[in-house]
Amino acid sequence: MKVRIGCHVSIAGSLAASVSRAISRECRTFQIFTRNPRGWNYKEVAEEDAAAFREAVATSGMDPAVAHMPYLPNLASPKEEVYEKSVSAFCAEVERCHLLGIPYLVTHLGSTLGTPPEEGQDRIVRALGAALDMNAAGVTILLENTAGCRNTIGNRFDEIGSILDEAGGKARLGICFDTCHAFAAGYDLRTAASVNSVMKECDAEVGSQRIHLVHLNDAKAPLASGRDRHEHLGLGEIGPEGLSAVLHHPALRHLPFICETPVDERRDDLGNIRYAAFLAGGTSGAAPL
Questions:
Q1: DSSP label at 172?
Q2: 83 flagged as catalytic
Q3: How far is residue 255's CA from residue 242's CA, in Å, rounded to a whole number?
Q4: Which of 254, 258, 262, 275 is most buried by a 10 A CB count?
């Protein structure tokens, strides 16, 4: 089975233009922001634009298209105005995915800003409930594990598992597993043995079958640093052996892999996708640069 590997691409120009960008990078899956990720305001998706995007995806052969929540919403915020705006933006993004035919929406769980973690978790569960109450069949919400930064929710599998259990809606809730975030939060992914150990813990705390997507990123910062800094595949602290083990793990290999790696003089998106394909294929010879 050929592993599905892709990257995050821009929607500059139009939503449909993102599909062409993904194709040019040899993606077999891809991720987008459906709108400006750095602001609260956005335009509604016109039906003709949605239809053009759906048609472009359908003819591309890529599967699946994935959307990521914008940066500003904080589903754990104790600030009522921010929380209400965040939940509203979250529900609107679920509706946009439904209109665009995007099956997965990835969301960070947010920051408590120093308030008790259990209160933040309760706010997240209420936000998930609001999204699940929407008539948006076919959209699965994926909770992304976080990098261990102070006051963030979702650093540990047991924390994510607790939120999933309390929120219910099993058919429409799952996990996006980010390798850089996991490593930064203290999950060692540098060897096949350590990857197996991490996945056993994930299975026990959450259920590995609830992982629907992998963000495949190397890490610039050391294990348990709490620093969310992505690196080119194979050039960071996780390294080739660990990333290869992730790509080959039986609980993950069938899933889509999205690279969120840098673009610089060392390597671009296409370079990282080809490197991931090299690791996934287990072929001999020199790795692509």
A1: G
A2: no
A3: 17
A4: 258
Is 248 among the catalytic positions?
A: no
Can you give the pLDDT at residue 177?
98
Report the alpha-carbon distance of residue 285 to residue 148 in Å, rounded.
36
Q: Residue ranges of the chain with pLDDT lower than 50?
A: 284-285
Catalytic residue among 4, 35, 108, 123: 108
**List 93, 178, 231, 269, catalytic entry:** 178
Whole domain around residue 229: which residue ranges? 4-281
Q: How many domains does the chain have?
A: 1
How far apart CA 201 and CA 206 sit, in angstroms, is 8
Catalytic: 228? yes
Q: Is 269 an active-site residue?
A: no
Which of 29, 28, 3, 1 is closest to 277 using CA atoms?
Answer: 3
Tell me the CATH number at 158.
Answer: 3.20.20.150
Say whether 165 is catalytic.
Answer: no
Active site residue 232: no
Within a domain: 286: no
The answer to whether the beta carbons of residues 139 and 102 sit under 8 Å apart is yes
SS (H, E, C) 50-100: HHHHHHHHHHHCCCCEEEECCCCCCCCCCCHHHHHHHHHHHHHHHHHHHHH
Q: Does residue 289 lie within any of the structural domains?
A: no
- The pTM for the full model equals 0.97
Which residues have C-beta within 8 Å of that of residue 97, sequence separation ≥ 6? 34, 67, 103, 104, 105, 136, 139
C-beta neighbour count of 16 within 10 angstroms: 17
The reply to whether 71 belongs to the active site is yes
- Is 160 inside a domain boundary? yes
- pLDDT score recorded for residue 2: 86
Which is catalytic among the residues 4, 21, 215, 267? 215
Cα-Cα-Cα-Cα dihedral of 276, 279, 282, 288, to 10°? 80
Instruction: Examine residue 147 and state whether it is found in any structural domain, yes or no.
Output: yes
Selecting among 25, 98, 172, 181, the annotated active-site residue is 181
Is residue 181 among the annotated active site residues?
Answer: yes
